[in-house]
UniProtKB/TrEMBL annotation:
<keyword id="KW-0413">Isomerase</keyword>
<dbReference type="InterPro" id="IPR014711">
    <property type="entry name" value="TopoI_cat_a-hlx-sub_euk"/>
</dbReference>
<dbReference type="GO" id="GO:0003677">
    <property type="term" value="F:DNA binding"/>
</dbReference>
<dbReference type="GO" id="GO:0003917">
    <property type="term" value="F:DNA topoisomerase type I (single strand cut, ATP-independent) activity"/>
</dbReference>
<comment type="similarity">
    <text>Belongs to the type IB topoisomerase family.</text>
</comment>
<dbReference type="InterPro" id="IPR011010">
    <property type="entry name" value="DNA_brk_join_enz"/>
</dbReference>
<dbReference type="InterPro" id="IPR013500">
    <property type="entry name" value="TopoI_cat_euk"/>
</dbReference>
<dbReference type="Pfam" id="PF21338">
    <property type="entry name" value="Top1B_N_bact"/>
</dbReference>
<keyword id="KW-0238">DNA-binding</keyword>
<dbReference type="InterPro" id="IPR035447">
    <property type="entry name" value="DNA_topo_I_N_sf"/>
</dbReference>
<protein>
    <recommendedName>
        <fullName>DNA topoisomerase</fullName>
        <ecNumber>5.6.2.1</ecNumber>
    </recommendedName>
</protein>
<dbReference type="GO" id="GO:0006265">
    <property type="term" value="P:DNA topological change"/>
</dbReference>
<keyword id="KW-0799">Topoisomerase</keyword>
<dbReference type="InterPro" id="IPR001631">
    <property type="entry name" value="TopoI"/>
</dbReference>
<dbReference type="Pfam" id="PF01028">
    <property type="entry name" value="Topoisom_I"/>
</dbReference>
<dbReference type="InterPro" id="IPR049331">
    <property type="entry name" value="Top1B_N_bact"/>
</dbReference>
<feature type="domain" description="DNA topoisomerase IB N-terminal">
    <location>
        <begin position="22"/>
        <end position="69"/>
    </location>
</feature>
Amino acid sequence: MRLKRVQPYSSSGYTRRRDGERFRYRDADGKPVDADERRRVIELAIPPAWNKVWISDRANAHILAVGVDAAGRRQYIYHPEWRRVRDGEKFERARRLAESLPGARTGVTRALRGDELTRDRVLAAAFRLLDTVAIRAGGESYLAENGTHGLTTLLGRHVSISGSTVQLRFPAKSGVAAEVEVVDDDLARCLGEARRSPRTRLLAWKDGSKRVPITTIDLNAYVRERTLGDFTAKDFRTLHGTITAARSLAKQGLASTERERSACIRRAVQAVADELGNTPTVARTSYIDPEVFDRYAAGELIDLSISPDSGILALLGRPGSHGAPAGAA
C-alpha cells in the first residue's frame, strides 16, 4: 500500500463527539460517516479520554488519527506501515551510531581530560553519560510542567561522587525515581569540578564569571559533531535498549522450548525497561530492534567477549542490512 501524507486538522477528515456511552463521527460537512468508515474508525481504538480528535478520511493516510490526552499532550495514531518504515529507519540509525562510537569516544575522552571547565569539556561529560547509561536528554518544558529532570537539567543535589564512582539520583519522566552509577575517573573529576551547589545546574560551563547550563540543542549538536552523523540523544537509548536485550538473552542462553524462549524474552525486555526507566511495553516497541528476537529464535547470540557495540553489529549486521523502506507519497 502506498501511503498518503496528510496534515492533521488541515487535511480532510472526521470529528468525534461523545453521545452518551458512544461516539458519533462526522465528516467535514457535518454528515455522519457511513457504516464501513465507522467500522474502520472504531478499529483504530482511539482512547476515549482523548479530546480534540481528528481522524483522517483516508485509510492509507500516514497519520490515521490525532487527539489530545488527559495531560494536554498531542498524541498520534500512525498507519502500521508508516510505523514499520520509521522503526526500520530508527534501528538502522542505532546501528550507524554503534559504528561511529569508537572514533567519537577518542575525542570525548580527550576533551574530558582538559583542565578548564570549558563548553567542550562539559558537553563531553554529557556525551559520556549518554554513552554509558543513556539518560534521557530532558528539557526545560519537562522540568516546568512535570518537575522531572533529564541529563541537561540535572542539579548539583542529584549527583554524589566518591573517588571514581559517580551516582545520579533524580526524578525522571513519568515519576520514575532514576538511579544510575558510573565508575569513570575522567567523568568523576569533571563533574566534581562542575558541581557548585545543590540547586544549580550540574552541567554548566564557565564563561568568565558566569556559568552557562547546557541545553538539549547544545547536546544534540555535540552528538552530531563527535559522531559525524545525524544522531540525537534518543538514538543512544535505542542502541542501549537493543544491546541490553541482546546481552540479556546471551547470558540466559538458548532455550529448548517455545515456552522457555518466551520467558527469556520477557526477562530481556524487563531488563531494558529497568535500565531505561520505561514500561516493558514501551521498551519492547520503541527501544529494542525486533531483529534481536528473530536472531535469538534462530539460535544466534551476541558475543559477550567483545565490546557491546562490536557485538551488536556482528549479531545484526552492519548498517544497510535492514530492508529498504518505501516512503509515503
